[in-house]
Design goal:
Elements (H helix, E strand, L loop, with lengths): L5 E7 L5 H14 L5 E6 L5 H5 L7 H10 L10 H12 L1 E2 L3 E5 L10 H15 L4 E6 L4 H4 L5 E9 L3 H16 L3 E12 L7 H9 L4 E6 L2 H9 L11 H15 L1
Parallel strand pairs: 1-5, 1-6, 2-4, 2-5, 6-7, 7-8
Antiparallel strand pairs: 3-4
The chain binds adenosine-5'-triphosphate and magnesium ion.
Magnesium ion binds next to helix 1.
C-alpha cells in the first residue's frame, strides 16, 4: 500500500507545548484546506481533543480492554479481524476537516497484541486517505521505543527557550536516532519565546553546537493561555494570533525540503 500522506509527530519534555503545537498545526492544515487531517492523540493523558473542540470518550486503549474482556461477544460468522477493524473504525471521531483517533493507555504486561497488529494494518490502509497525519505524543522519550512514533516524515521536538531545554531536546533527538526510527527529518521548535523577540545568541549557539535543525519559534501568546483556561478550541483563534502565524511558518519550513 503506497503511503502518500505526510506524517508529523510531535515530541518533547513535559509541558513544553507538544499539544499546543499539534493543535495549532492541525488547525492550520484544516484552514488551508489540506484535508482531511488525521489527528492522533498518542498521549494516554489525552488533551489534544480539547484544543480541537472534540469530546473524546473512545480510544484504542479502551477498545483493547473491551476486546480482552468480551472476546466471546464477537458475532458468530464474522472473522475476528473484520470485527476489530469495525471497532477501530468506530473509535475514529469524524469532524469537519479532520478525523481524530485517541490511542489511550498503552497495553500493560498482559498485552493483547492482536488488536495492535490489526491496528497497524488498518492504519497503513487508511493513512493514504489523509494528506496529513499529526500525532501528539506523551512527554519524554519512552514512546519513541514503542510502535506509535516509529514512522513519521517529520519529528518536531518542542522545548522552552532555555539552554537546559535545548540539551533535553538534543537528547531526545539522539535517542530517536539510536532507536533507528523511520523518521525522515528531526526538527527543533522553541516555544514560548518572549513576544516580538528572537532567540538570544546563547540559545542559538547551543542549537548549533548540538546540531539541531530549528524549524521555527513560537512566541508566548496570551490568547493560547486564555483559550487553554477557558477550554476554547484553536479553530476560534484569529488568523493573526502570533502563535497561529508561527505554526503556519513552521509548516512551510518543514515541508519545504
Ligand atoms: N506559545 C504559548 N503561549 C502561551 N501559552 C502556551 C504556549 N505554548 C503552550 N502554552 C501553555 O503551556 C501549557 C503546556 O502546554 P502543552 O499542554 O501544549 O504542553 P505539553 O508539552 O503538551 O504538555 P504535557 O507534557 O503535559 O503533554 C498549557 O497550559 C498551554 O496553554
Ligand atoms: Mg500534551
Amino acid at each position: 500500500m503506497s503511503r502518500i500522506s505526510t506524517a508529523i509527530a510531535v515530541s518533547g519534555k513535559g509541558g513544553t507545548g507538544k499539544t499546543t503545537l499539534s493543535g495549532l498545526l492541525i488547525v492550520s492544515l484544516v484552514k488551508a484546506g489540506k484535508t482531511p487531517v488525521l489527528a492522533i492523540d498518542a498521549d494516554p493523558n489525552a488533551t489534544l481533543n480539547e484544543t480541537l473542540g472534540v469530546k473524546s470518550d473512545k480510544s484504542i486503549g479502551l477498545l483493547r480492554e473491551e476486546v480482552r474482556e468480551n472476546i466471546d461477544s464477537i458475532p458468530v460468522g464474522m472473522p475476528k479481524e473484520t470485527f476489530l477493524e469495525y471497532q477501530i473504525q468506530d473509535a475514529v471521531i469524524e469532524e469537519k476537516g479532520f478525523d481524530m483517533l485517541a490511542m489511550g493507555r498503552p497495553e500493560g504486561p498482559g498485552c493483547y497484541c492482536y488488536v495492535n497488529s490489526v491496528l497497524r494494518k488498518y492504519m497503513d490502509q487508511i493513512s493514504g486517505n489523509y494528506p496529513y497525519v499529526v500525532m501528539d505524543n506523551e512527554a519524554g522519550m519512552e514512546h519513541l521505543a514503542r510502535n506509535t512514533t516509529r514512522q513519521a516524515d517529520y519529528l518536531l521536538i518542542t522545548t522552552d527557550p532555555s539552554i537546559r531545554g535545548i540539551e533535553t531536546a538534543a537528547r531526545i533527538r539522539d535517542l530517536a536516532e539510536e532507536e533507528r526510527l523511520k523518521i525522515g527529518h528531526i526538527y527543533l521548535v522553541v516555544n514560548r519565546v518572549e513576544p516580538d523577540s528572537e532567540l538570544n545568541s546563547a540559545l542559538k549557539e547551543k542549537i548549533d553546537e548540538r546540531k539541531l535543525d530549528l524549524a521555527g519559534i513560537i512566541p508566548r501568546d496570551s490568547l493560547i493561555e486564555e483559550f487553554d483556561l477557558e477550554g476554547k478550541p484553536f479553530f476560534d483563534l484569529p488568523d493573526d494570533a502570533p502563535a497561529m502565524i508561527a505554526a503556519k511558518k513552521i509548516l512551510e519550513q518543514i515541508t519545504r525540503r
